[in-house]
């Protein structure tokens, strides 16, 4: 609804409209203005919280404003950060003109405003604002020397005069009530507590870690949190990893399985160190979308009382009365930034570390005791078997060591010539596969209409240990090995990569200034592919090759680097080039020295873009019959690099297939075999 729709008809001179560069508050609350944008606003003061000190040099005060578009609602919150001497002084029903305030989204709360260095605030004293057509300039309170000066003129003064005398001023408290609430804003009690100190019937602010994924129950969410302190009134959560042991001498209940929870479900501490919280709206919606097991969260105004069974303390978070609409009292905390970290969070992480060390030690002791007990039982169950003397045991031990040394010598001979700077998570008993073996089709025997038939599988879910060398890579420029996408509320989920929902964000370069203006945060991720061939291909035959995708997590493992905008981060690009040189030798130099090949690769990329195929490896890398090799039509290049041992896994993806006879993955879809590098690391 436009501002004019809210103005009353006037039989006298036409009322001045909202100045052209201004925005009514309803449009902001209805999100017609994007977070991060700058706006100009006129509003009447409904509530004011006096300035309080922050962790920095500024103070913070909060104004709640409303205009004719929101006079029936709570209004909009305006957070002001300034030195105490520069804070605006406002009274009940004063009119405030704000120039260049930033629109922000804080947690799941409605949009609000926040000051910045360019923000100018003008206060018109309510008691001095004359009736129109007289100008309200006489009511403008003086500015101090440090306040921002902006272009405010007769147009603004005239509008303030009409605004003040047409708005419903009963929506704001009178002066006495206003001043009382302002004074009360300084008397906010610090309700923070450790869980070990919480008591029945009180409200607390907590900083804790989420012990398991939130459990959704209709209109509420159940949350389990811990700050790694113990409270005797809490439920005793148990560990079922060693079911055959007794609970004696085990303060954390490691050996009990009464809860029946697995370690996969429960990531928090055992014993009486965690509390169950029941969270209602609006907190529940925020928890569903933003909170997962392992997150550290700030929880405000948590009611502590005994649960329905009357045996254990529980927590409850309900909608607050007399608060701004949909106020959320849950916030996820960043644990990587030491400079801005709350000291109370740092202490919680320290307790977490100490608990983790203690738990690992106790589990190790329990398992060791279990092993010793099992050996003793085995000896007791076989009394007829001759007991070995110490000399015989030493002889057997020496023989085992000699056998292992011989095996290691064989392995060393086999590994001769391999790149020692590349390692992988291989197992000694795992056989080494060749590329030719990996590419072999797999058939299964089945019965169709009573007849036995062999059916070729489109792919298998398999893992391989192989020895290979890199003969090509894609994209052709290292600067494109990292791509970006817009951040998502689900990035905290461990299985969310953003590939499916955010692929559009990779299709075109992003303007960083535009992203900042829109309040968009971008996440940079590794995404590239390597073409591999056997370390020792068969003579007199075309060597078998395959492409392997390297996703963000595996690229971090491979290079030890985090993805950034490589076109703007030369240091990270140099580090990447050095690491990849250890992997593929002179390959990049040969590709760079061959401009016709680079042009052909770029042309293939443009062709894929036109036909809607993969760009930037968003869906899949080239397969064995690479478009780049086919269409570039270039000869082989002699590359100097060492073979290395790596791990490869095979899987399948569904892609569009217009030919119905080839659609083996549902209507209009077919399966495509894929390969991915995993568990491989370049050691410097």
UniProtKB/TrEMBL annotation:
Gene Ontology cellular component terms for the protein in this record: nuclear telomere cap complex
Protein name as annotated: Protection of telomeres protein 1
Record's compositionally biased regions (Acidic residues): 498-514
GO biological process per UniProt: regulation of telomere maintenance via telomerase; telomere capping
Broad class of the protein's primary localization: nucleus
Domain Telomeric single stranded DNA binding POT1/Cdc13: 22-168
Subcellular locations according to the entry: Chromosome, Telomere; Nucleus
Location of the region described as Disordered in the Swiss-Prot/TrEMBL record: 492-517
Family note: Belongs to the telombin family.
Coiled-coil residue spans: 389-416
Cross-referenced InterPro entries: NA-bd_OB-fold, POT1, POT1PC, Telomer_end-bd_POT1/Cdc13
GO molecular function: G-rich strand telomeric DNA binding; telomerase inhibitor activity
UniProt keyword annotations, A-Z: Chromosome, Coiled coil, DNA-binding, Nucleus, Telomere
One Pfam family cited in the UniProt record for this chain: POT1PC
């Amino acid at each position: 609804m436009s501002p004019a729709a809210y103005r009353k008809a006037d039989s006298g001179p036409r009322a001045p409209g909202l100045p052209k560069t201004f925005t009514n508050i309803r449009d902001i609350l209805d999100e017609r203005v994007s977070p991060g944008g700058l706006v100009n606003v006129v509003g009447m003061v409904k509530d004011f919280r006096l300035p309080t000190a922050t962790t920095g040099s500024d103070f913070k005060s909060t104004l709640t404003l409303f205009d004719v578009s929101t006079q029936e609602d709570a209004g909009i919150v305006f957070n002001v950060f300034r030195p105490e001497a520069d804070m605006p002084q406002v009274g009940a029903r004063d009119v405030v003109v704000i120039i260049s305030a930033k629109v922000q989204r804080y947690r799941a709360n409605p949009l609000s405003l926040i000051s910045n260095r360019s923000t100018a605030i003008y206060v018109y004293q309510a008691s001095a604002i004359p009736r129109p057509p007289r100008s309200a300039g006489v009511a403008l309170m003086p500015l101090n020397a440090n306040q921002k000066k902006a272009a405010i003129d007769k147009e603004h003064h005239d509008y303030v005069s009409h605004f003040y005398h047409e708005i419903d001023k009963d929506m704001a408290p009178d002066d006495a009530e206003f001043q009382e609430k302002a004074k009360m804003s300084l008397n906010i009690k610090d309700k923070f507590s450790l869980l070990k100190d919480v008591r029945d019937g009180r409200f607390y602010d907590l900083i804790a870690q989420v012990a398991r994924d939130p459990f959704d129950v209709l209109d509420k969410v159940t949350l389990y949190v811990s700050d790694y302190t113990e409270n005797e009134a809490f439920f005793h959560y148990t560990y079922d990893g060693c079911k055959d042991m007794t609970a004696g001498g085990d303060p954390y209940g490691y050996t009990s399985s009464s809860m029946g929870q697995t370690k996969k479900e429960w990531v928090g501490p055992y014993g009486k160190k965690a509390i169950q919280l029941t969270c209602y709206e609006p907190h529940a919606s925020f928890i569903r979308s933003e909170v997962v097991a392992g997150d550290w969260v700030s929880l405000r105004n948590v009611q502590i009382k005994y649960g329905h069974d009357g045996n254990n303390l529980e927590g409850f978070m309900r909608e607050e009365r007399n608060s701004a609409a949909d106020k959320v009292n849950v916030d996820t905390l960043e644990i990587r930034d030491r400079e801005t970290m709350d000291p109370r969070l740092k202490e919680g992480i320290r307790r977490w570390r100490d608990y983790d060390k203690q738990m690992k030690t106790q589990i190790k002791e329990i398992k060791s005791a279990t092993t010793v007990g099992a050996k003793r039982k085995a000896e007791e169950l076989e009394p007829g078997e001759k007991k070995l003397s110490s000399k015989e045991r030493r002889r057997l031990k020496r023989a085992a060591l000699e056998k292992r040394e011989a095996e290691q010598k064989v392995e060393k001979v086999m590994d001769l010539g391999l790149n020692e700077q590349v390692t992988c998570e291989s197992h000694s008993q795992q056989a080494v596969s060749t590329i030719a073996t990996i590419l072999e089709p797999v058939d299964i025997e089945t019965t169709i209409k009573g007849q036995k038939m062999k059916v070729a599988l489109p792919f298998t879910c398999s893992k391989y240990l192989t020895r290979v060398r890199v003969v090509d890579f894609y994209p052709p420029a290292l600067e494109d090995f990292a791509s970006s996408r817009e951040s998502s509320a689900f990035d905290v989920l461990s299985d969310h990569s953003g590939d499916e929902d955010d692929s559009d964000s990779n299709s075109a370069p992003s303007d960083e200034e535009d992203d900042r203006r829109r309040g968009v945060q971008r996440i940079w991720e590794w995404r590239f592919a390597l073409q591999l061939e056997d370390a020792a291909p068969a003579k007199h035959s075309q060597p078998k090759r395959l492409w392997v995708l390297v996703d963000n997590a595996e690229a971090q493992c491979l290079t030890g680097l985090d993805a950034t905008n490589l076109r703007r981060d030369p240091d990270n690009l140099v580090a990447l080039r050095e690491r990849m040189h250890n992997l593929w030798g002179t390959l990049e130099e040969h590709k760079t020295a061959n401009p016709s090949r680079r042009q052909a690769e770029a042309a293939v990329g443009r062709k894929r873009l036109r036909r809607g195929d993969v760009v930037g490896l968003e869906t899949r890398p080239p397969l064995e019959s690479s478009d780049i090799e086919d269409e570039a039509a270039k000869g082989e290049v002699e590359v100097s690099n060492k073979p290395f041992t790596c791990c490869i896994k095979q899987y399948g993806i569904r892609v569009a297939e217009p030919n119905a006879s080839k659609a083996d993955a549902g209507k209009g879809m077919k399966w495509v075999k894929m390969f991915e590098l995993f568990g491989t690391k370049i050691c410097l």
